């Protein structure tokens, strides 16, 4: 009885620890989502403060539309320092490799092993047809489940690759007082970007001046409706995603026009951080998967031990 009580107490403690671990994981996820915007402060800044923060952009505080922008030399130096304005593509993997990877699940390996043993048993004695049926059913279950997980992983990879399609190939900037069209990859922090209706925002841009500017950023903010943007600073308690004065990388201009200063490029943009989290973050294992893996290991080890014992007994008895 004392042994049972000790075992039951250990189970309760393990369950409590598991719940605590899950709660900590949820808290970390919430904190990581807030960290996406934690380095941004420009949405709280006034125009005069932005002029001080980006002196080389030569912003005209009285009339931002007359900003001279970066010089060609400064832009080249920033590009060499920060790298190109682009998102790192996900690792390429063939459909065959992706599909075969699904069979590495410990539970599926156990079912395949059981199906193999059933098939061997049927071959040794073809009169017992049930062994053949068991092998076929088990293999079908594994195949169907692997196909489902393969399709799900393929969807995730498609979404990640879709992030790069949100970026325009060209953008309009002001450099040395002249509006020019450049490759988006050559855009740098401090560039003055011109946003027009029908174009995509090439980086994270703090709006300096706008007229009826409406942007669609559903892939980033989740807002289905276009958002009206402005150039005014917001209070300290307002989050970046609610500020409506920072146009995110990949947003589409529905209406109006505006001008702004680039504050983040490439992987440092909100879109880049989301893509990076999607491709690098390890898949969280649920409590159910942990229990299943534990059960599979127990069955596997038990089967090996029992098989070894029966084999040794058979060898002894036959002698």
TrEMBL record:
It holds the Pfam family E1-E2_ATPase. SUPFAM superfamilies: Calcium ATPase, transduction domain A, Calcium ATPase, transmembrane domain M. The chain crosses the membrane at residues 103-124, 130-151, 295-314. Gene3D superfamilies: Calcium-transporting ATPase, cytoplasmic transduction domain A (2.70.150.10), Calcium-transporting ATPase, transmembrane domain (1.20.1110.10). SMART domains: Cation_ATPase_N (SM00831). The keyword Lipid metabolism does not apply. Keywords: Membrane, Transmembrane, Transmembrane helix. Residues 41-123 form the Cation-transporting P-type ATPase N-terminal domain. This is Cation-transporting P-type ATPase N-terminal domain-containing protein.
């Amino acid at each position: 009885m004392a042994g049972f009580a000790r075992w039951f107490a250990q189970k309760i403690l393990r369950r409590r620890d598991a719940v605590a671990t899950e709660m900590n994981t949820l808290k970390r996820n919430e904190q990581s989502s807030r960290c996406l915007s934690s380095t941004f402060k420009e949405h709280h800044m006034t125009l005069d403060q932005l002029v001080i923060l980006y002196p080389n952009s030569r912003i005209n505080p009285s009339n931002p539309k007359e900003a001279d922008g970066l010089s060609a030399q400064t832009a080249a130096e920033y590009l060499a320092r920060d790298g190109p304005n682009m998102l790192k593509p996900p690792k390429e993997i063939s459909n065959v490799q992706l599909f075969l990877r699904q069979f590495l699940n410990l539970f599926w390996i156990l079912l395949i092993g059981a199906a193999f043993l059933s098939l061997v048993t049927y071959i040794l004695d073809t009169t017992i047809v049930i062994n053949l049926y068991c092998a076929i059913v088990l293999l079908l279950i594994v195949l169907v489940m692997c196909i489902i997980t393969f399709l799900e992983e393929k969807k995730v990879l498609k979404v990640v690759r879709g992030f790069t399609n949100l970026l325009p190939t060209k953008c309009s900037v002001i450099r040395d007082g002249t509006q020019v069209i450049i490759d988006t990859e050559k855009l740098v922090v401090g560039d003055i970007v011109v946003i027009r209706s029908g174009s995509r925002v090439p980086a994270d841009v703090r709006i300096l001046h706008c007229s009826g500017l409406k942007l669609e950023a559903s892939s980033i903010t989740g807002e289905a409706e276009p958002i009206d943007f402005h150039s005014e600073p917001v209070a300290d308690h307002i989050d970046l995603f609610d500020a409506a004065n920072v146009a995110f990388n990949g947003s589409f201009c529905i209406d109006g026009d505006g001008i702004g200063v680039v504050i983040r490029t490439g992987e440092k943009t909100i879109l880049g951080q989301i893509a990076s989290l999607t491709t690098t973050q390890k898949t969280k294992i649920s409590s159910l998967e942990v229990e299943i893996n534990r059960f599979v290991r127990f069955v596997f080890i038990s089967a090996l031990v029992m098989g070894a014992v029966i084999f040794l007994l058979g060898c002894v008895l036959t002698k």
